[in-house]
Amino acid sequence: MQSNYKNIIENAYNLTKPLKDLGKLATYIPELANVNPNKFGVHMTHIDGTHYGIGDNQEKFSIQSIAKVLSLTLAVKFIGEKIWTRVDVEPSGTKFDSLLLLETYNGIPRNPFVNSGAIVICDILLTHLEHAREEFLEFVRDLSDIPDLTYSDNIADSEKATGFRNVALCNFIKSLGNIKNKPEDVLDFYFDMCSLEMNCQQLSHTFAFLINGGRKLNNGKKIISRSQAKRINALMLTCGFYDESGEFAFKVGLPGKSGVGGGIVAVYPNNFTIAVWSPKLNPNGNSFKGMKLLEDITTHSEMSIF
Ligand code: GLN
């Protein structure tokens, strides 16, 4: 695989680029509506340290929900198994911002990747870390090797001004007893966490610990245990794409995570990570062309875990 992955990516990129994009920009966060909808880039990082990208793969974009994997990783690293009493590990079968199942399950979100689950993870981090906002940023700086990474105030403020559904989610969970801090503090942290920006190369580099038994690829530094990495990958496979998680496993066959900024990162343990960015989203809030590109890559290669 190693020798020809560049050709496979290049071919898939060239095939996908001219497709009629049936997706739409995420306009509910006003700042995301200002992005050029035709951007399209992809970057793969191989376990042997080589990497390859094409298209707009060096341009930063808002990673949004992809950051939920990183906040979960920090929670798993510092707080361990007890987080699973506060959030479950089941696919939700609902939209990413749904309130629907919270009442049924007493305020326990179905998984850490729907908004409700990521909000509870932010609450857990706020309780257990002295300076959660700063410590999370430091953690991602180290993982990504981007020492000057910062939260994007433009994006966070834009979402704070319009994120009424997340406000509702956080207050609803609080009323059910599963938010311990002030909802305003939890939401501020959540919006900051979602505001991080990276390019495809940086994103594929950042996620490389998940293909390398929980250790960074470039220096071997242990981030989480092998077993914890396995569990996060399992959650990405079953819950990474909300009510389209089954479809992504079916068509692409890799654990992955999407964000409403149009990014997707997918991982093949012991092989590679791949990050793709195309801002127009399908009705489930996942990048339309990003899904197509990854489907093409794994269909025309042996690059799926199945
Ligand atoms: N910040 C976004 C929200 O809470 C993240 C959603 C996403 O990327 N799916 O709505």
Which features does this protein show?
two-stranded antiparallel ribbon, 5-stranded antiparallel beta sheet, single chain, Glutaminase, Beta-lactamase, Beta-lactam/transpept-like, 12 helices, 306 residues, hydrolase, binds glutamine, globular, alpha+beta
Class by SSE composition: alpha+beta
CATH class of the largest domain, named Alpha Beta
How large is the radius of gyration? 18 Å
Name the shape in a single word.
Answer: globular
Strand content: 5-15%
Spatial separation of the terminal alpha carbons: 15 Å
Q: In the CATH hierarchy, what is the architecture of the largest domain at level 2?
A: 3-Layer(aba) Sandwich
**Ligands (ions, cofactors included):** glutamine
Question: What's the CATH topology label of the largest domain?
Answer: Beta-lactamase
How many helices? The count is 12
Total number of β-strand segments? 7
Q: Which stretches of 5+ consecutive residues score pLDDT under 50?
A: none
Helix and strand pattern: HEEEHHHHHHHEHHHEEEH
Largest sheet: 5 strands, antiparallel
User: In CATH, what is the homologous superfamily of the largest domain?
Assistant: DD-peptidase/beta-lactamase superfamily
Mean pLDDT: 96
Spatial sequence of strands, sheet with the most strands? 2-1-7-6-5
When the domains are counted, the total is 2
Helix percentage range:
40-55%
